[in-house]
Amino acid sequence: MSADPRDEIVEHLPALRAFALSLTRNGALADDMVQDTLVKAWSKIHTFEQGTNMRAWLFTILRNTYYSNRRKAGREVSDAEGTFTDSLSEKPAHDGRLQLEDFRRAFVQLSDEQREALILVGAQGFAYEDAAETCGVAVGTIKSRVNRARARLVELLKLDDEDELEMTDQATMAVVSGRRTSGALN
Amino acid sequence: MGQNRAKAKEAEVIDENLRRVYEDMLDEKVPDRFLDLIARLKASETADSESGDR
Q1: What is the CATH number of the domain that holds A105?
Q2: Which residue from A2, A72, A122, A134 has the highest number of Cβ atoms inside 10 Å of its Cβ?
Q3: How far A169 CA lies from chain B's nearest CA (Å)?
Q4: 3-class DSSP state for residue A174?
């Protein structure tokens, strides 16, 4: 009974779509990318090494497809229609964290390479090494893209203003600074 | 040192919000067109292997 690794692909669909949407910032384009990726993955399954990270392998196919289309078009696809920012429903931020809408607006302004690196490392939780392999660049390149992406977001969201930062998630702040806010547990 | 701590704080705020945006995307229902596509890819392969010994 030899399991077909392709049976596993369906489990990665939500992540593949999320990655595609982060990269393209456009729902229709993202789904076209996912479709292309599925067809390619199906026929190129022999290039997948059993036991390795299938999600990273699928992401690689998707981003290669995207960048090759971008090269043909000669420029980045813009978020002119605001699909990325409009496609998701807003949840109220009772806890005083950043408004997600503000965050999305800042996020879509990053370059493709910065969004990609930040999503892989910061959201998807890839090790720098896996992210570097997925993107076909050196580990140092990924690290610097992630750092520059974060710095740019800080700038766009004006987080470098002390007061603004105080307004964000107090619990997160307490953990990060190693201090407990007054009235915390214990 | 204070600088580093401020940087770490900023990174944490960024990543926390990033994960929330990303999780919203992960929660979206996968459209049927993709499940249909996978079913078609599977079916066409079965048809191929049945019609000849490759």
Answers
A1: 1.10.10.10
A2: A134
A3: 8
A4: helix
Q: How confident is the model over A136-146, as pLDDT tens digits?
A: 999 999 999 99
Tokens linked to A10: 């369906």
Tally of CB atoms within 10 A around A9: 23
Distance between CA atoms of residues A89 and B28, nearest Å: 11
B26 residue type, one letter: L
A52 and A101 inside one domain: no
Considering the domain architecture, whether residues A105 and A158 belong to the same structural domain is answered as: yes
pLDDT at B44: 87
End-to-end C-alpha distance for chain B, whole angstroms: 65
Q: Which residue range(s) make up the domain with A137?
A: 97-168
> Which chain A residues have a beta carbon less than 8 Å from that of B8?
176
Angle at B24 (CA atoms; ends B23, B30), nearest 5 degrees: 100
Number of domains in chain B: 1
Is pLDDT above 60 for A125?
A: yes
For B24, the domain range is: 2-51
For residue A140, give both structure tokens: 């140092």
- On whether ipTM exceeds 0.90, the answer is no
Q: Report the number of distinct structural domains present in chain A.
A: 2
CB contact under 8 A, B21 and A176: no
The CATH code of the domain that includes A43 is: 1.10.1740.10
Q: Does B25 touch chain A (CB under 8 A)?
A: yes
Write out pLDDT tens, residues A5-31.
899 999 999 999 999 999 999 889 999
